């Protein structure tokens, strides 16, 4: 077996870090064009093996998932937001498994389906407030939508309107954690250093914890049969039948924070790019609206109805392919293992090249083109498309994300035609695939 190739770059003591910091998407795409299934890079002092194909990704995330854990560098920083040692996102091994088994039923599609009317109403309320015939930043608008949905489905509270300071607290705490994870210089400033930014971060966490404390206490004081059917109620009642494991108060607060942190920005940014593409190509929008007309005419919209719309599914899939919110993810090998027949040492960093995989010319025709029809026309390799990952750590919140994306598209297009703005939207890779200066469209009432 030949050695794993090293990516070529201009000499730098930081290796590939400068390229990855300045043009990450170009670098990720270049690696699937110029290298085989696996390639070596170096980010500062850390070597990484980058996996680029469905087979190598499947080896790491699914077939040999037990050989890998979450990358500890980022997880250590993510734990700074927690009260207990871990939550579902940061934990590994048995600690992760017992949380996953406990929480999985909470995100069952039948439970999520019961929130259809609630989500529909909240999206409709926000959409009715948007001003037509002016440029609107869909990044900001969709952030509002997803935060409203999370607040109501998780806590039965309107965080967006009734507690805007908490909305800002969630945003800042998440943003600050991402900055510390992605910027080596930011990591060198410990949280105990009394900077204004650290003070703001701690104050934001304190506000969030106060909200969760209040919500949990209020819910526990209610009669069981009077509690609303939201995530908080479900998690309070959750208990593993075999082991008796249930979440402590601190663990419950950390899981609630993880749900907000993981589910808010990813869905909102994907929706923003979806509407941008609909504005860019009116033909796609008109075909989609023709399909949605049946839903608009229905007396009641159901989850089964919206999940069964083929062209809406194609548009959402194409958005998640072209703009994967999580464009990479990382793992660390626990033991000596192998990928594609190559030996992998223990404690080696692995980078899953999701963006490259979603734009790999071996699996996608014209990969840089937004083309929903490919989902009807082409044979899709199932593991060339992994917006929610694959394997045991596949995103637990996918059913909720899928439903809220569909209902948001349905309710917005029911009221508005999405039109291109003269303001430009430039794709940039931050923690998710955002735009440099917003994702702008114009809304015309139907």
Mean pLDDT: 92
Poorly predicted ranges: none
**How would you sum up the global shape?**
globular
Quick one: biggest sheet?
Answer: 5 strands, mixed
Radius of gyration: 22 Å
Helix content: 40-55%
What strand order characterises the main sheet?
A: 1-2-8-5-3
Number of strands: 12
Structural class, judged by helices and strands? alpha+beta
SS element count, helices: 20
What is the strand content?
5-15%
How far the N terminus sits from the C terminus, by CA atoms, comes to 61 Å
SSE order and pairing:
Layout: H1 17-22, H2 24-34, E1 38-43, E2 46-51, H3 54-63, E3 68-70, H4 72-78, H5 93-103, H6 109-113, H7 116-129, E4 135-137, H8 138-155, H9 159-162, H10 164-182, H11 184-187, H12 196-220, H13 231-237, H14 249-280, H15 282-296, H16 303-307, H17 310-322, E5 329-333, E6 337-339, E7 342-344, E8 349-352, H18 354-358, H19 374-377, H20 398-415, E9 416-420, E10 427-429, E11 433-435, E12 440-445
Parallel strand pairs: 2-8
Antiparallel strand pairs: 1-2, 3-5, 4-12, 5-8, 6-7, 9-12, 10-11
Characterization of this structure:
The protein is an alpha+beta fold and about 450 residues long. Helix content is about 50%, strand content about 10%. It contains 20 helices and twelve strands. It has helices at about 15-20, 25-35, 55-65, 70-80, 95-105, 110-115, 115-130, 140-155, 160, 165-180, 185, 195-220, 230-235, 250-280, 280-295, 305, 310-320, 355-360, 375, 400-415; strands at about 40-45, 45-50, 70, 135, 330-335, 335-340, 340-345, 350, 415-420, 425-430, 435, 440-445. The strands form four sheets. A five-stranded mixed beta sheet has the order 1-2-8-5-3. Strands 4-12-9 form a three-stranded antiparallel beta sheet. A two-stranded antiparallel ribbon has the order 6-7. Helix 7 crosses helix 20 (about 400-415). The chain is globular and about 60 Å long. The mean pLDDT is about 90.
